Inverse folding.
């Protein structure tokens, strides 16, 4: 079976909050005549991204074509979760023309590519391409890049410092594995920021890569699908910081779920999330909240202190329970302190 006869799969990777779900929502609404299926790999057991995408379902990508793998990275659950999910999608009638895989924002893409070597699926699917999303504003600010001067100064003071931070490694690996880079939120970065981001990506990439600016996920499906990269056969060209290591990519990160009492004013929750990011070095917050008198769920997503919220769909018969997933690096995770900020226990009435 040639690669052209295999079912193509596109891996969509990118750092926390870079816009992967927004991109997939756009592709679902503008599939270019392709019948799509989606696999969403969440970090934490609250399936926020999967819920968002199911709300975007259309005939060319109905709800049954959208599957979630929560609370476990794909590469760690290949036999138990990933292969059965792919096989279930391939068994759909009609069969999808193309599968999109949205990885966790903390995922290293190369271990996932290795999962496509499993005999059960290797003969049936091919990795059409790896798409890496990068937040233009964040990259321009150097948030995921090592500051060489600062690292050199630290090395002189402490010889034990000889590696980059986990966040920087994740970002570098996503860039190194990609076939094309989508630079998201260019409007927030401005022309100077976009130029800085492109310069940094070019310096980090192991080979020249096309970089496309994308706002709100709007990109022509022809640009990113149909690359025919056969990435599973091209592993040597995709170097990783973790080549030769069996460590799982999530070991440096933790997530907790915080139950949020019903709100009277969403701006209060936004202020608490901003405070959390500033005081506790939190990477990502996402989930739902219930607002008194409102029949719809409040979707909340935050990257650092940048918080976005909107009413997405009615609660209907679901319990009106607000739940937020909070993700942080292992050393910054203090569950009690996080809960005290996001969901403070009201003082007892005197």
């Amino acid at each position: 079976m040639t690669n052209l006869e295999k079912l193509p799969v596109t891996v969509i990777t990118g750092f926390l909050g870079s816009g992967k779900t927004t991109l997939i929502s756009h592709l679902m609404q503008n599939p270019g005549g392709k019948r799509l299926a989606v696999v969403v790999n969440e970090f934490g057991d609250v399936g926020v991204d999967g819920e968002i995408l199911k709300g975007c379902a259309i005939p060319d990508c109905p709800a049954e074509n959208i599957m979630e793998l929560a609370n476990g990275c794909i590469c760690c659950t290949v036999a138990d979760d990933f292969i059965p999910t792919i096989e279930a999608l391939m068994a759909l009638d009609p069969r999808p023309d193309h599968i999109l895989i949205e990885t966790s924002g903390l995922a290293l893409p190369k271990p996932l590519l290795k999962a496509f070597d499993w005999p059960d699926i290797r003969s049936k699917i091919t990795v059409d391409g790896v798409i890496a999303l990068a937040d233009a504003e964040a990259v321009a600010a150097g948030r995921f890049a090592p500051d060489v001067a600062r690292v050199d100064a630290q090395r002189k003071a402490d010889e034990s410092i000889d590696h980059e931070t986990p966040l920087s490694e994740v970002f570098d690996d996503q860039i190194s594995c990609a076939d094309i880079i989508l630079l998201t939120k260019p409007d927030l970065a401005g022309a100077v920021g976009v130029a800085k981001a492109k310069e940094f990506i070019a310096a980090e990439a192991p080979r020249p890569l096309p970089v496309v600016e994308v706002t709100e996920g709007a990109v022509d499906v022809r640009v990113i699908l149909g690359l025919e990269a056969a990435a599973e056969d091209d592993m040597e060209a995709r170097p990783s910081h973790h080549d030769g290591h069996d460590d799982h990519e999530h070991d440096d990160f933790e997530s907790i779920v915080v139950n949020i009492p019903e709100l009277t004013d969403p701006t209060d929750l936004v202020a608490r999330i901003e405070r959390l990011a500033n005081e506790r070095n939190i990477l990502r917050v996402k989930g739902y909240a219930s607002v008194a008198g409102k029949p719809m769920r409040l979707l909340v997503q935050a990257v650092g202190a940048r918080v976005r919220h909107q009413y997405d769909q009615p609660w209907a018969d679901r319990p009106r329970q607000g739940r937020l997933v909070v993700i942080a690096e292992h050393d910054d995770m203090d569950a009690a302190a996080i809960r005290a900020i996001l969901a403070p226990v009201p003082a007892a009435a005197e």
